[in-house]
Amino acid sequence: MIKKHYEFSSWLRITHWIRVLAIVILTATGFYLAYPFISSAHSGGEPVNFLNALSRSWHVIFGFLLIAVTIGKFYLFIFDKQSQIERSSFWDFISPKAWIKQIGYYMLINKHPHGEGVYNPLQFMAYVGIYVAIVMISVTGIILYVHVYHEGLGGILFDIVRPLEVMLGGLAWVRELHHIFMWVFIIFLPIHIYLAIFNSIYGKSGAMDSIISGYRWIKKKKNH
Ligand code: HEM
Fold this sequence. Notes:
This protein has about 220 residues and is mostly helical. It is built from 7 helices and 4 strands, in the order E-H-E-E-H-H-H-H-H-H-E. The chain has one domain: Fumarate Reductase Cytochrome B subunit (Up-down Bundle). Helices cover about 65% and strands about 5% of the residues.
């Protein structure tokens, strides 16, 4: 018998999709900031449409949105009852047996293993890496921000983030690191989507549905 199984809480799903939206918009606007390949319409030889400033505005808006949902996600990971299944994945992550079984599954040698938590060890490691990248791109983003906006929040954060800027090797390096971390997302995204679809279809569990509806399917013995 196949049964519906509640996996991800609504806040977990909402933060996931806001994160997707923010990363897509930040990558598109970030590319433009790094290399302004289209110039805005000129009038009398003067660039007056300020396309770069517009891209930077949207970049910063979605940058702070990304920071907000990341703080929210950390809160969920630590305190949310439904996120216990995420926390339990840590025990698979440190279990060599779980690693061998998972690699065997990817090599089509054995069936999908069932571990302690919702993520397999490779997946857990990849997600930890992605969160490290989000923290790094946010910290370097804030350092860039305080150099562009000197009033309000920028002014408050200026003295706080300056020592970090020095530790990271100066502003030019901060910009370089911010740019390099963008590529972590560009590389991660197609692999993440491919593996999610693969797992959902090959594993016949509707795993892809769980990040949308919250539910996936599990096989249960008839008399249970
Ligand atoms: C997935 C997340 C992000 C991506 C992919 C991304 C990408 C980029 C890229 C490629 C640049 C251009 C760097 C260069 O000149 O080579 C940039 C600039 C910048 N980013 Fe981000 N970024 C992200 C998140 C953030 C966050 C969280 C903030 C914080 C508010 C932020 C604030 C800025 C600022 C202020 C600039 C400089 C704008 C300027 O030069 O006027 N970014 N970003």
